[in-house]
Structure formats: C-alpha cells, structure tokens
Write a structure and sequence with these properties.
- This protein is an all-alpha fold and 460 residues long.
- Helices cover 72% and strands 0% of the residues.
- It contains 19 helices and no strands.
- Helix 3 packs across helix 12.
- It is globular, with a radius of gyration of 22 Å.
- The two termini are 25 Å apart.
Length: 460
C-alpha cells in the first residue's frame, strides 16, 4: 500500500515535470505569436508549487468508487495541477501574491473531495413507466437537433483550418444577438444528446445510436468549428476503459496516460522539428486552463470583480467592463479580443467574487457532485457515469453557472433522475439487443457491460 502511494506520487511528479517542460520548450516557442509568454518565478516558489500540486494525493484515493471521484481526478489533472504550476511560469510579477491563488485552489480541492465521500442522499424516485421515459428522452433529443438545424442550417462540410476562428466568431455572434437559444441547443447537443446516444448505444448494443452520436458531433464541428467537441466521445470512452472493471488505480492510470501523451507528442515534435503536435494535443486541455487561471487571478486582483454580472444577476448588476470577460481577457493578455478566453469553474469564481467566490462555488459544485452520486445509487450506472465524465470537461472549460445552464449539467441531472425512476420501477426495461453486431462493436459493449457491473457494485 505504501509502495503504491509512493509510486503514485512519483508518476504525478513526472506529470508535473513533463507538463512544465512541454510548455517551456515546445508550446510557448511555437505559439509565441499568439501571446504565450515565459516568465519563470524563482526556484523556491516553483518548488512550493510542486509540493502543493502533489498534496491532494495524500488524501485522494487512486481507486474510484463514485462518479464524482472520477470527475475529481479529471479536474485534478486538467485544472488543479495546471492552475498550481503554470502561474509561476507565465506571470511577470513578484511571485508572493500568487501564493494566494495556490492556497485557494488547494483549499477548494480539499473541500471538493470531502463532498465526493459524503454518505449518499436518499432521493425518492418518481413513478415512471419505461414508455414514458423513452418518450421524454426521444422528444428532447429530436427537438434539440431540429432546433440546431432550424437556427444554423444543416452543415455537413467542415470549415478549413484557416476559417475555424471565423466560424467560431460567427457562431458566438449569432448565439449572443440574433438567436440566443441557439447557443443553448448546441451545448445541449454536445454535452447531453450526443453522449446520451453514445452511452445507450454502447451499453445496450445499439449500433445505430453510436453512429448517430458521432453524426451529431460532426454536425457540431461543422457548425461551431470546435475540434474538442468532436473528440469528447472517444476521449470519454477511453477514460471508461481506464476505469476497467473494478475502478482500481484509476488516478494512477490517468496520470500515467497524461504523462505518456505529453512524452509521445514531444518525441514526435523533436524528430519532426515542427513542435506543433504537442501544442495541438496538449495546449488547450492541459496548459491553457493553468495559463488562464494565472491571467484571471492577475487581472481581477487589480480590477473590479464581476459579481455575476454576466450570469443570472446581469439584470441587477452592471458589468464594469462593457464586454464579455473571455473577449476582455483575450484582448488584455493575447492582444486579440477574438481569442475567446473562457476559463474553468474556479477561474470564473475568482473573477466574480475573488477568494470568497472560490469557496462558495466549490461548495455549490461539491453539493451537485454529492447529489449526482446519490442519483446513481442502486441502478445500472453505465449511462449516468458516462454523462458525468463528459460533463467534467465542461467544468474544466466553463464557469459553474454556464455549465449548469448552457452546458447542460442540470439537464443531465434530470435525465439521470428519470433514468433512476424508470430503473427502480422496472430494472429489466433496458435489454441488450439480440441482433448480430460486428466483433469490434461487441467488444465495446462487453467493456461497457463490465463497467456497468462495477458501477452497480460501488453504488449499491
């Protein structure tokens, strides 16, 4: 046990070292033209950041037993570690104040882990017939897809790499001005509809649903120009494969996988001489959350906070800057307001209320994690677990209330509750298809089936 814990610390330290090295020697030089900088803090401060980045491993378990613990590990790798390490590499200022951000993030993840281990709530189910459940889910999926088509048209041709930012800018303009509901529908398609089709298709051997889910993501890519959205489904499935059949060593495997990906991309770039692969694969998912943590902390430490003036309090609180914060941050730190610099939950929390926001938003997020865990109790957890894995990437890239409303978390929470109600009313209402399927599809189904046995055992 002690040896395994030391090994976990070793792999985490290797991940931090490779994350820093990849930024210093590959990402920053390649994308310097976008405004990426390198301002290393003194060595003693960087050493402290390493210690704080490793401290959560003292209490966190590598084996996962709940959906929230899986999300915690993903947020640890994609948000916590970058937010602790990157500010000491990019902020050109006296480093002592940065310790406030470091300790704030540390406290936030300590609080969040506490919620991930609370006893489950007893959530009474509805009396819901399976036919009603199917009807509600089918109606939601169809209306969402039709809404996207009605607003943005049926786009099946992908934008060129040179036009991607123009496509994104056009989408944001349409979503914010002429048709705000379109922005909601697109995000629901990414984080709810497509994952729902994909998880049902794999779990219950429905090949058509899997193909429809990828078609939906392709439409989103052609409409939005977002490469990340198209990669969400295979990435989430790869994470479930890492979970395996018993959830053992999930954290260790994820840290090892992240480290390996960075090493492989750096090796490819070293031999090719392009240094582009590391930037394309790792920059948005691993480096940018930490860079934006630093910039949001730096800006809102010296300027007025937002007070949710861009969220549900916008009718009562005035935005002191008159422009969207992601555009403002793009202009301030990258010299281009079209670089839409949206940040994760804790970056947005600090931008709204400073350190108090980090605490309050963490408590809200932890409470939602606790509720979601409770909804997966005593049911087949394959579909709810997959939805939650997808949603973790939303929390890593958007603010709390944006993810809850626009990002579809509340919708997925409702879907899970309906699923729970239908399951407890009739546990046999979902049956595996007896139609012959190709072997590759059968293997995926077997993985989801073993994963389902795990989720039933750990939530039962």
């Amino acid at each position: 046990m002690i040896l395994r814990q030391f090994f976990l610390f070793g792999v985490a330290a290797a991940f931090i070292a490779v994350l820093s090295t990849s930024y210093i020697y590959f990402v920053q030089p390649t994308f310097k033209y976008l405004g990426l900088v390198y301002h290393p803090a003194p060595l003693e401060f960087r050493f402290v950041s390493w210690i704080v980045a490793l401290l959560p491993l003292v209490w966190v378990k590598s084996k996962i037993e709940r959906p929230s613990q899986c999300a915690y590990w993903l947020l640890y790798i994609t948000v916590y570690v970058p937010s602790i390490i990157m500010p000491y590499l990019v902020l050109n200022q006296e480093p002592t104040p940065i310790l406030g951000l470091t300790l704030g993030m540390f406290a936030a993840f300590l609080i969040l882990w506490t919620f991930c281990n609370l006893p489950s709530l007893n959530v009474p189910p509805l009396r819901l017939r399976p036919a009603t459940f199917y009807t509600l889910i089918f109606t939601f999926c169809v209306l969402t897809v039709l809404g996207v088509f009605a607003i943005y048209g049926v786009k099946l041709s992908p934008p060129s790499l040179a036009d991607i930012y123009d496509v994104r800018s056009e989408f944001k303009t349409t979503a914010e001005t002429s048709n705000p509901i379109g922005g909601y529908l697109v995000q629901w398609l990414i984080y709810s509809v497509a994952p729902l089709l994909f998880s049902f298709g794999l779990a219950y051997r429905k090949r058509t649903l899997v193909l429809l889910s990828f078609l939906a993501m392709w439409v989103i890519y052609c409409t939005l120009g977002s490469k990340t959205s198209f990669l969400l489904l295979p990435l989430a499935f790869a994470i479930i494969k890492v979970v395996g059949t018993d959830g053992r060593n999930f954290g260790l495997k994820m840290l090892g996988a992240a480290t390996l990906v960075l090493l492989v991309t750096m090796t490819i770039d070293s031999f090719s001489g392009t240094k582009m692969v590391t930037g394309i694969i790792s920059m948005r998912m691993l480096h940018v959350p930490g860079i934006l943590s630093a910039y949001y902390f730096d800006f809102f430490s010296h300027n007025p906070t937002l007070g949710l003036s861009e969220s549900f309090l916008k009718y009562f609180v005035r935005n002191p800057y008159g422009v969207r914060t992601p555009n403002l941050m793009g202009f301030e730190y990258f010299g281009d307001s079209n670089i839409f610099s949206n940040v994760h939950v804790w970056g947005e929390a600090f931008g709204n209320f400073g350190y108090a926001g980090i605490f309050v938003f963490t408590v809200i997020l932890g409470s939602l994690f606790w509720l979601y865990d409770s909804l997966t109790l005593h049911i087949d957890g394959r579909v709810p677990f997959f939805l939650f894995v997808i949603q973790s990437f939303g929390f890593a890239n958007s603010g709390l209330f944006t993810t809850l409303l626009t990002g579809g978390f509340l919708i997925n929470l409702g879907i899970t509750y309906l699923f729970r109600s239908a399951w407890l009313s009739n546990p046999n209402f979902l049956r595996v298809s007896r139609l012959p399927e190709p072997r590759w599809f059968d293997l995926l189904g077997e993985r989801m089936l073993s994963f389902g046995n795990l989720t039933r055992s750990i939530t039962g």
